[in-house]
TrEMBL record:
It comes from the Bacteria. It holds the Pfam family Porphobil_deam. PANTHER family: PORPHOBILINOGEN DEAMINASE (PTHR11557). This is Porphobilinogen deaminase. The lineage of its organism: Bacteria, Pseudomonadati, Pseudomonadota, Gammaproteobacteria, Kangiellales. Its cofactor is dipyrromethane. The modification S-(dipyrrolylmethanemethyl)cysteine is found at C242. HAMAP family: Porphobil_deam. Keywords: Porphyrin biosynthesis, Transferase. The keyword Transferase applies. It catalyses: 4 porphobilinogen + H2O = hydroxymethylbilane + 4 NH4(+). Monomer.
Amino acid sequence: MSISTLRIATRQSPLAMWQAEYVQSRLQQLHPDLTVELVPMTTQGDKILGTPLTKIGGKGLFVKELEQAMLEGRADIAVHSMKDVPYQFPEGLELKVICEREDPTDAFVSNKYHNLDELPCGANVGTSSLRRKIQLLKARPDLKITDLRGNVGTRLSKLDDGNYDAIVLASAGLKRLGLEERIRSQFEPELMLPAPGQGAVGIEARTNDPELDAILQPLQDETTSLRVLAERTITKTLQASCQVPVAAFATIDNDTLSLRALVGGVDQQIIEASAEGSAKDALAIGQKVSQELLDLGARELIQELAASADH
Ligand SMILES: NCc1[nH]cc(CCC(=O)O)c1CC(=O)O
């Protein structure tokens, strides 16, 4: 048995399509004899884009249909923004590779101001991300943070309609879509710690298929994988849903991995922790930082958030 055609299940948003086409073209280059097809799909999450994420049970809704397609043999792989992938995979599926990371920062986007410092007192900033909201308010408690959902293009249109003084988006998404010129400035990770996995694309596929693994393996980027492993260990250990503002960002310099993470609470409190060590101990470093967050009261913050979201 030999794989001659590989089908990529993908959402149809421009960003998802870019990512799927990126993997398609890299695979096609690596394996000229392989046919690589896209299987575009609409997920439950896409159908209810207007509803706040926290009300619809989270980001998992964007990957479920893709996973169903793979489990039923209608597709072979799914390409994801690692930021949006839940930690747990369904029986029969697993994360195969993580590709080289694009810019992991968040971007300040505005038609009037160059950066956060230039925003006037009480300015209106659009984001639906609790992670972005708590960090914006930490730096600028005077700001008014307003909900902003939809695909990258939709969010930019809402900014252009004059509804916001500025919005915050992932730099990676803007760059991939050729919208880099919309970035007024990039947030330093110290000021706006990115989401776990931000800027990295990963591939999910069925377990127990060595031939498929061999096809995908050349796309694996070791440095990115170790960084994202450390970052995602925070999400996993804290079992934080998307109602919880969590940020985690790892860098690797000369084989030393440095990880910083934070968790936010109902009243904008922030708990943070960091650690560093040998890059090969990425998992252990992630566990150490998670434990420190728990020791500092992260569990209580998360329970408080869950209770307040139920009301
Ligand atoms: N939540 C949607 C989403 N998922 C991944 C990206 C950007 C690309 C990436 O982080 O890999 C975005 C858009 C954004 O947050 O601005």
